[in-house]
Design goal:
By secondary structure, the protein is of the alpha/beta class. Helices cover about 45% and strands about 20% of the residues. The chain is elongated and about 55 Å long.
């Protein structure tokens, strides 16, 4: 018996939606904005893939997604998060997951990170202001640093403007996981 997959997401600037739609396309399953999802929506599916952005230390929408999945009894949850960090920022990504998943969830809930970028044009005004202030503070802090790492220089470059580093390559580990564990259609 083939298992059915459903993808839901919470996206503000479009990166998470873009990845959710890529995943749904690869797995030939539906994708829907979390705001339109209810526990009843999830009932026909075996595996729920949820995506949200890393924002202010949390995966945006994850708590709601976990609650909805818990209401469906026995559904498998797979999580992906998007963010402005490059995939090579492994320690920062690991810490972000520790902030969002309990110790048992870290072991039991498959979770994946997909670099997206920054889109100041689609950011809510209050977030745009906070990001611009953060960028200015960090640039000033790094300005006087004499032993800048490559990561420091890259951070200075990307924090100031919008950029998109999303790629279909980043969904491959999640797709492989779904296929290898027979969590497909």
């Amino acid at each position: 018996m083939k298992k059915k997959i459903f993808v839901c997401y919470k996206s503000v600037t479009g990166f998470t939606k873009k990845y959710a739609e890529m995943i749904a396309g690869e797995m030939a399953c539906p994708a829907m904005d979390l705001k339109d999802v209810t526990a009843k929506t999830l009932l026909p599916y075996d595996t729920i893939v949820f995506g949200g952005r890393f924002h202010a230390g949390t995966v945006d929408g994850l708590e709601k997604a976990k609650k909805l999945v818990a209401e469906t009894n026995g559904k498998t949850l797979v999580v992906f998060a998007t963010g402005a960090m490059p995939g090579t920022a492994t320690e920062s990504i690991r810490q972000a997951w520790k902030n969002n998943l309990s110790e048992s969830e870290l072991r039991q809930v498959p979770h994946f990170y997909m670099p997206g970028g920054l889109c100041y044009e689609k950011m809510p005004l209050h977030e745009k202001i906070i990001m611009k202030i953060f960028a200015a503070v960090m640039k000033n802090k790094l300005k006087n640093k004499t032993d800048k790492t490559a990561e420091d220089r890259e951070f200075e470059r990307v924090i100031s403007t919008s950029y998109d580093i999303s790629s279909g390559e980043y969904i491959k580990p999640l797709i492989s996981f779904l296929e290898e564990t027979k969590m497909y259609r």
